[in-house]
């Protein structure tokens, strides 16, 4: 059974899909803890699904490195096989990435390497492209440029807003994440083969 710690910064919609998948006795993974860098709405999912939660507030530390060291220490208390950044809007310090990689995944609402960064959906709309996508990557020390584990195209519709496009991308993100965790747990995906670290 693959054990996961999932880090969030917001509502945790991708996390919900993963928690729902984990309720199936046949699904070979379990979320053991949900963490956040702020008071995030998605932490409420812990109570709903009976999963422990923790918060390591970025604002409580003098530096990104000090925050990262505390975050890593808390994550290690759970001894997870895999850490998933799901809507986690904070760059991890290099030593945290080094400690967890390659068993460190991130979802991103674009077809990487297109539109990296915090505004992938907005940037795709601004560029006027006919399609964007969703990606799942192994986190490295860059910004959304780690090895790609899975990705899929999503069309941009003529009347799309940032919200409507993001909503359709999230559907794909959720499916990619649930399937990738399944493939990792079953040995069909070897993250070491995707690692650059």
UniProtKB/TrEMBL annotation:
Question: Under the GO molecular function aspect, what terms does this record hold?
Answer: phosphoribosylglycinamide formyltransferase activity
- Annotated N(1)-(5-phospho-beta-D-ribosyl)glycinamide binding lies at 12-14
Any single biological process term in GO: 'de novo' IMP biosynthetic process
Q: What pathway annotation does it carry?
A: Purine metabolism; IMP biosynthesis via de novo pathway; N(2)-formyl-N(1)-(5-phospho-D-ribosyl)glycinamide from N(1)-(5-phospho-D-ribosyl)glycinamide (10-formyl THF route): step 1/1
The residues responsible for catalysis, as annotated, are: 108
Q: List the residue(s) that the UniProt entry marks as the site Raises pKa of active site His.
A: 144
User: Keywords of this protein's UniProt record, alphabetized?
Assistant: Purine biosynthesis, Transferase
Task: Detail which positions bind (6R)-10-formyltetrahydrofolate.
Answer: 64, 89-92, 106
Q: InterPro entries annotated for this entry?
A: Formyl_transf_N (IPR002376), Formyl_transf_N_sf (IPR036477), GART (IPR004607)
Q: Does the keyword Transferase apply?
A: yes
E.C. number, please? Answer: 2.1.2.2
Q: Which residues form the Formyl transferase N-terminal domain?
A: 4-181
Chemical reaction(s) catalysed: N(1)-(5-phospho-beta-D-ribosyl)glycinamide + (6R)-10-formyltetrahydrofolate = N(2)-formyl-N(1)-(5-phospho-beta-D-ribosyl)glycinamide + (6S)-5,6,7,8-tetrahydrofolate + H(+)
Superkingdom as given in the UniProt entry:
Bacteria
Give the record's GO CC terms. Answer: cytosol
The record's PANTHER family line, in alphabetical order, gives: PHOSPHORIBOSYLGLYCINAMIDE FORMYLTRANSFERASE
Query: Could you say which protein family the record assigns here?
Result: Belongs to the GART family.
Functional description taken from the UniProt entry:
Catalyzes the transfer of a formyl group from 10-formyltetrahydrofolate to 5-phospho-ribosyl-glycinamide (GAR), producing 5-phospho-ribosyl-N-formylglycinamide (FGAR) and tetrahydrofolate.
Q: Which NCBIfam families does the entry mention?
A: PurN
Q: What is this protein called?
A: Phosphoribosylglycinamide formyltransferase
Species of origin: Cryobacterium zhongshanensis
> What taxonomic lineage is listed for the species of origin?
Bacteria, Bacillati, Actinomycetota, Actinomycetes, Micrococcales
